[in-house]
Backbone:
């Protein structure tokens, strides 16, 4: 009997302690991200102060994702939700937030983290747009996480967000962000040096690798194989792209795994230009290794295509 009373008292004490402000403030922040690259970034900054879960595994096309129950459940428990923005996830992230019924991550709340608001995007569109122009992102190209320099800048933005939620850890977050920013700047510099003097011209199927190309100091071509964003080229448009790529001495085409296989096989066969399919997100939870791997593959395939 005495033992039962003692155990009951322990549980009661534990419950009071768990809900006390001091314990709540020291508990790890529950963070959810749309893409795994941001999960890596936040884990590097927060360490043991955060528990981070990405909604995507890195194999999906982030343009086309459903707001599935597992996403909604993770979001319902989040203190902070960081996503790409710039309309990339417009078809599913707002639904995840709404259906989670989590006031911490709603627009205007401290836990709502639209990282696209802190980026100077490539190719913003001035003027009206409509569906006849394809799948355009009016605010600009949203695939900015493929630039280590931008990721380094965002480390400081995320450190500020984490500091708002755990002010007692501010110094640790800021120190980690400053160190990681330097690491990522050095990563971009070293990988760009590997491609110096290559005179490498790369054509994209869809403008998913523009930030990668710029981060490597390479020339961005003013067109893609797509006739319009999100719209495969017609036969005549494909012929035009083939001829144009030949004239421009393009040595490599970059495409994501979801890009149309049959069309790109035809492009490669008729142009003589190899197509390299690259992932657009890390699948191994290590952004720096992922980025180096992209450059390794570009070098390998471009050297094989050089004259």
Residues:
């Amino acid at each position: 009997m005495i033992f039962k009373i003692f155990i009951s008292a322990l549980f009661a004490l534990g419950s009071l302690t768990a809900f006390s402000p001091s314990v709540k403030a020291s508990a790890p922040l529950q963070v959810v991200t749309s893409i795994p690259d941001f999960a890596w970034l936040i884990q590097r900054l927060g360490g043991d102060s955060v528990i981070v879960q990405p909604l995507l595994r890195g194999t999906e096309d982030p343009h086309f994702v459903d707001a599935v129950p597992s996403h909604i459940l993770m979001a319902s428990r989040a203190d902070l939700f960081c996503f790409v923005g710039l309309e990339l996830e417009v078809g599913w992230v707002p639904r995840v937030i709404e259906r989670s019924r989590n006031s911490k991550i709603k627009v205007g709340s401290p836990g709502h983290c639209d990282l696209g608001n802190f980026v100077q995007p490539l190719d913003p569109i001035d003027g009206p747009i409509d569906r006849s122009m394809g799948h355009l992102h009016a605010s600009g190209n949203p695939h900015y996480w493929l630039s280590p320099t931008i990721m380094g800048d965002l480390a400081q933005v995320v450190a500020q967000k984490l500091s708002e939620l755990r002010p007692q850890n501010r110094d640790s977050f800021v120190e980690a962000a400053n160190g990681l920013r330097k690491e990522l700047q050095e990563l971009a510099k070293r990988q760009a040096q590997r491609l110096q003097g290559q005179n490498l011209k790369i054509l994209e199927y869809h403008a998913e690798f523009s930030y990668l190309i710029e981060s490597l100091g390479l020339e961005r071509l003013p067109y893609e194989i797509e006739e319009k964003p999100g719209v495969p080229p017609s036969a005549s448009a494909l012929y035009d792209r083939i001829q144009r790529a030949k004239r421009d001495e393009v040595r490599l085409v970059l495409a994501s795994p979801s890009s149309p296989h049959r069309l790109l096989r035809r492009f490669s066969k008729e142009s003589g230009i190899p197509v390299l399919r690259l992932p657009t997100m890390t699948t191994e939870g290590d952004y720096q290794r992922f980025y180096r791997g992209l450059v390794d593959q570009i070098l390998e395939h471009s050297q094989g295509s050089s004259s």
Observations:
- Residues 63 and 88 are 6 Å apart (CA to CA).
- The first strand starts at residue 29 and ends at 33.
- The chain is about 45% helix and 10% strand.
